[in-house]
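Comment thread on ticket #2218

A.B. wrote:
> Attaching the input chain for the structure job we discussed in standup.
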Amino acid sequence: MNKIQKKEYTITINGPSSSGKSSAGLEVAKSLGFSFLSTGNVYRSYAWALQCHNISNFAQKKCIDIMEQYNFEYVGKDVYYNGKNIAGEIGYEELALKAAMLARKKWYRNWLNQNVIFPYIKNKSIVIEGRGLKEIVTNPSVDFFLKSTIFARCMRRMGQFKKKYGIVDSNIDTLYKQIQKRDFLDINRKIAPLKKEKGTKVINNTTCKRVDTVKKMLFVIHKRYPELAIDWKIPGSLK
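C.D. wrote:
> Ran it. Output below, let me know if you need it in another format.
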């Protein structure tokens, strides 16, 4: 791999839930030698913290008092709390829906941005994936939008959970309705709604394998920034 210059690059990946943002984004980050952050994991981990305290009314002061007690470590797609990987616990669609409801609250987004996300992405080249990233990165080096049908996202979601945890998240009809509801919440929220920004590179990966999505993303990045060109070899995890 060519030596990367000291210039910092920020690659953002938007798109609806279960569109493959984390899986593709992590491989792109590894290929370029960049850091990686899933903002979805940030939102879900703190929703999990509130759930552990049986918080349901989401009163700002009470929630922040609890959130300040937690310190999560984000490593790839994994999330650690007190040395334990809780990625499986925060990945369920029910918790994701709770996180989506919290994401509609301005105080929740502001607190996470100021205390978790901004400090994490500061002064480094990074790939960030999530929804509504415009409020975090106003001028990304490259901005992608991954999209696919709800059915394709359901199948992807169920396959990921079965492979990684040996369990199935839900039956497909229930999962379809849950993802459909999350899409509605994300698209229609007043603060940082999910939408394709001007100049965004859209990739429809409904029928694409993850390796093909990664190849397309790297091609766009290398074309725009030749200094980042690499001889990319397909990792064993993608074969």
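A.B. wrote:
> Thanks. Noting for the ticket: Residues 172-188 form the longest helix (17 residues).
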